[in-house]
Write a structure and sequence with these properties.
It holds the Pfam family ARD. It catalyses: 1,2-dihydroxy-5-(methylsulfanyl)pent-1-en-3-one + O2 = 3-(methylsulfanyl)propanoate + CO + formate + 2 H(+); 1,2-dihydroxy-5-(methylsulfanyl)pent-1-en-3-one + O2 = 4-methylsulfanyl-2-oxobutanoate + formate + 2 H(+). InterPro entries: ARD, ARD_euk, RmlC-like_jellyroll, RmlC_Cupin_sf. This protein has a single domain, classed as Jelly Rolls (Sandwich), CATH 2.60.120. The chain contains 5 helices and 10 strands. The strands form 2 sheets. Strands 1, 2, 3, 5, 6, 7, 8 and 9 form an 8-stranded antiparallel beta sheet that branches. The longest helix is centred in the N-terminal third of the chain and has 11 residues. The chain is globular, with a radius of gyration of 15 Å.
């Protein structure tokens, strides 16, 4: 996992978009915005994932393949939907099994931070954080999605600052 400030250029969202010179963002700085990260130990993630699921009370899981082949005719539409700035009322938990992509989050200063994830990365975005997702230029990612309850992945597009989950999120990072 690599994280850095996003350059905000209006080019293909699947490009790295790293400022020049780069402004890295540490795991500790991500944590100040409520983002959690684990590097999974090996190509067999089962034991470590099971332990994290038990500790964090994740009850359900599924897998998604985000690719032209996996999504077919709706691929470009889905990529645009994923890249629209939004939040969720539950955590977004992804264990990357294959491929790579980018999660962009709004940090505590409302700056875009780009987080590159690839096979072996597990990331948790807190409920209420503004974020978006895209693939890298290889256009392929296979991920395990984890959920505390039944799968819910309804995006609430920005602005939705009056949302109670957004308000709770802002309160939680103000305490950091």
């Amino acid at each position: 996992m690599r994280a850095y400030l996003y350059d905000n250029l209006d080019t293909d969202c699947r490009e790295p978009h790293e400022l020049i010179p780069s402004v890295p963002v540490s795991v500790e700085e991500l944590a100040e915005s409520g983002v959690l990260y684990w590097r999974l130990d090996s190509t067999d993630y089962t034991e470590q994932l099971d332990r994290i699921c038990e500790e964090r009370k994740y009850k359900n899981r599924d897998q998604i393949t985000v690719s032209k082949e996996g999504l077919g005719a709706v691929f470009e539409e889905k990529i645009k939907t994923f890249f629209a700035e939004h939040l969720h009322v539950d955590e977004e938990i992804r264990a990357i099994l294959e491929g790579a992509g980018y999660f962009d989050i709004r940090d505590r200063h409302d700056r875009w931070v780009r987080i590159k994830v690839e096979a072996g990365d597990l990331i948790v975005l807190p409920a209420g954080i503004y974020h978006r997702f895209t693939l890298d230029t290889n256009n392929y990612l296979k991920a395990m999605r984890l959920f505390k309850e039944d799968p819910v992945w309804t995006p609430l597009n920005r602005p939705c600052d009056d949302n109670p989950y957004r308000k709770a999120y802002l309160e939680s990072i103000a305490a950091n």
